[in-house]
Fold this sequence. Notes:
alpha+beta; Glycosyltransferase
Amino acid sequence: MKKLYLIIICIFISFQISLSQKNEKYFNDGFLDSLELKTFNYFWKTTNPNTGLVFDRYPTKSFSSVAAIGFGLTAYGIGAERGYVKRIEAAERVLQTLKYLYNLPQNSDVLGSAGYRGFFYHFLKTENGTRFGTDVELSTIDTALLMSGILFCQSYFSKENEIENEIRQYADLLYRRVEWNWILARPPRIAMGWYPEKGFHHLDWVGYNESAILYILAQGSPTFKIPNEAFDSFTSTNSWLEFNGYEFVSFGPLFGHQFSHCWIDFREIKDNYMRVKGIDYFENSRRATYANRDYAINNPKKWNGYSDSLWGISACDGPADVMMKFNNEERRFISYGGRGVAPDFNLDDGTLTPTAVGGSIAFAPEICVPTLKTMRNYQNGILWNEFGFVDAFNPSYITEKTPNGWVDVDYLGLDQGPIIIMIENLRSELVWNVMKKNKYIIAGLKNAGFNDGWLEGK
């Protein structure tokens, strides 16, 4: 019996050493150091420090994306932890951003406000923080991604000093004033948005996608909480399918398997849906990542460049909205679009995006890190610039102006965010561990039916 006990102990110690060596490998990877710092600088150097309004894209002139602000706020904490900037510098940037957002006008006017009932419009004017045009919706998911960054800052900046105390206060004010229960146009599901001109969006957030974080935030609210059955209603239309040999909840674009995971560690915690399936959402995203890679290996449309070390299909920029010949066949190419591949969805025009790979790096580093390194070296580093990777490229879009294929000129805030956050989660689990301390996140997960794993005893 004693001998068996010693064997078990030795196996456990060996496993722990192996695990720590694996983490150490990525923690000290020079390429990941460089990619993380470059991506951090997108948020730090292109954002107006007086407002904190992160550009939707850069260097092309653009409006601010509310979701990108949430990613930026999270990046500032990562930058402070990594020593890219001093903690006081990051704290000052965060506090200025939160104050600016809190004091922007909130009302039902068609123009001139930043939002209504605590929600924010999808896109804001960079000059004054108000709604960018009458076609822009009051966005539930973009508000949720913003609030995720805000709550990260609330828990990360935990020191007892004037600036960090204010950060926590403003974070609380911003989160607690969001009237999540107001936007249940068809209870208990959350509407995609609202327009002052025509009311609620006609669609709700249902089925597996990026909005799991939205329901968790809405169910954790102490002021405007939505019903506990909302998350079960959200998952009731999930599609459990097989794709390239993997069974998982299907969603075509990889960002849907990434965004909520940026802030929440879904390993070993399960809701009612996943409890029946016997896996967690982390494993679900890992399978989706492998299936996306294997799709590129199979390459059913025979696009140029696809391989086991060059893949990644998700929402991103693209070359143009045109029909043109490829391999003697008329093919459709698009500009920005929600690209993705799944059994029940296929939008693949030959465009690949680094965020599809970088945003999945914590799920499957063994295939994502080598692919990102291949992308860094692609065509002598044409994708690799001041702020990391440009948003996308298409080796099959061959024209007189692009004889070697199309390469983007822009970075997108929405796509830069998952890269830096998930690299840090792989290397240190910083964002996940910080969010595990946030009482609103814990309440939201429990009210949504999650338990087991790290939630036990919370």
